[in-house]
User: Fold Homoserine kinase from Terricaulis silvestris.
Amino acid sequence: MSAAAAQRATAFAPASVGNVGVGFDILGFSVDVLGDRVTASVSATPGVTIKAIRGVADDLPLEAAQNTAGRAVQALVEAAAPAFGIELEIEKGIPLGSGLGGSAASAVAGVVAANRLLQTPFSKLDLLKFAMQGEAVASGSLHVDNIAPSLFGGLVLTVGIDHPRVKQIPVPKGVRAVVVHPHLYLATKEARAVLSKTIGMSDFVWQTANLAGFIAGCYSNDVDMIRASFEDVLIEPQRQSMIPGFADVKAAAMAQGALGCSISGAGPTIFAWALAEQAQSALAAMEAQFASRQIGVDGWVVDIESAGARLVEI
Amino acid sequence: MSAAAAQRATAFAPASVGNVGVGFDILGFSVDVLGDRVTASVSATPGVTIKAIRGVADDLPLEAAQNTAGRAVQALVEAAAPAFGIELEIEKGIPLGSGLGGSAASAVAGVVAANRLLQTPFSKLDLLKFAMQGEAVASGSLHVDNIAPSLFGGLVLTVGIDHPRVKQIPVPKGVRAVVVHPHLYLATKEARAVLSKTIGMSDFVWQTANLAGFIAGCYSNDVDMIRASFEDVLIEPQRQSMIPGFADVKAAAMAQGALGCSISGAGPTIFAWALAEQAQSALAAMEAQFASRQIGVDGWVVDIESAGARLVEI
Assistant:
């Protein structure tokens, strides 16, 4: 019976914006001002147990198979078959149903912490696959657009589900993300249910042109191309009515010179990209729109590049 | 009445591969081993007239409005309103219905030659718009995936139709295109007609992931990512039955180590990308598949980067 490499480890995984407008289910970026922490400890109880859930959400399932972090660590345990059990303590920093990748962050923090206990740790790409199993518990689908940026940090593209490949995409210097979280709740499953099952050919061509232009603009430091292609013609029109005031919030951001503005993941959080000199005024304008509707908000201006999930001392 | 800047000019515009598998209607690359030439001359006859069509296709419309080069130069004349007429002589080097962007090349060569006659020449982006008008005569749609690479050269992304933006995408050093043209005829209009008008959501996500991965792979010199994402899950399955032996030709290319293989534009030309050391064997293997079906072919290994359309001395 091999011993654990450590008795206890804590990991932080950042929040994230999924879809990024033009990259439905494949593109996301980390929002490193908030995140979830998971502590993994060697336990005499076999398998995965959850000792406690604290923080901004505490009514999550304590049964490991039903919990995003629990299920993700179960997937890791199934692959590693360690000679000990793993007990988790989860501290939620990301509100439930905010569209900020909270379930992904818990899953990622769980596997990063648990990985530290193993004598032979897994690669990040393996951890990605384990975390996807956890994310599926919450969202009902195997999408990776929050998992990958929470784990790797920055703007991240994921290609493939069975054999995912991850690409960190450079973001032009001077570009910031503006993230506004209204105090409303939207379940990812419901937000997915409103989406049409099919896409028209001309919308397809338009959306793919925007996606390609956005990525080419990032790689080539071409802010004008990013601005020109930063438009979701497919998903946003179907979901925007679920967020009170969305059109006005977006218009407010664009009026301040934002490069683009759309829904973070399934919403209700709204994000924009803006040059640093316009980011604070875009944030204020977006928040003011929610305030005028008596909806409370949290808002941040963040660097998009980030270290991603990491072990922390507690 | 302002005089012409030149009495006569000839331009060459290269053939091109449209779609490039993952970039339906938005991505293309130039194939600079063959192309069309158009000579534009100042004429006393107002508007645009076509004096002659020669080369590998001579049964094209002589009426300017029905001819791709003629219509493109008409669009230029409508915008410039020169005090002289323009007469065109067209020399086709690209076979009709080959899927090698022949109509686009004639339109591009036409506007590049005619532009040389103007005292105040247009920008390349303006020429792109004029050439699109010509392409629409042949294909029935305003797509730019052949026009842009023929005009600019190399691997080119176009975002937008009304206000197109063009991005030349770098191709990793050592990557070559293999292009095999079977002696069959496929009309673009017919090849478009077979396509479904709608796309399923999961195919959409898969195709967009491949497109994004392909572009990211090109920018980051990541041949493995290009290989992993070089798959058209949408259009190729609908069109491949129009090309006898397609599946075998593709399998032959992949068996030689090609990075990917798909239909050039609407077909029947098939293209592959391969590392330089595998390109010739991929070409031979692809040609052999057509030969075994008693179908004649032309085939080339080409550098993807190219200067694009240019004025030439004749």
About this structure: The interface with chain B takes residues 23-27, 157-160, 163, 165, 167, 169, 195-201, 204-205, 207-213, 215-217, 219-220, 222, 224-225, 228-229 of chain A (CB under 8 Å). The two ends of chain A are 28 Å apart (CA to CA). The mean pLDDT of chain A is 94. Residues 8-168 of chain A form a domain with the Ribosomal Protein S5; domain 2 fold (CATH 3.30.230.10).
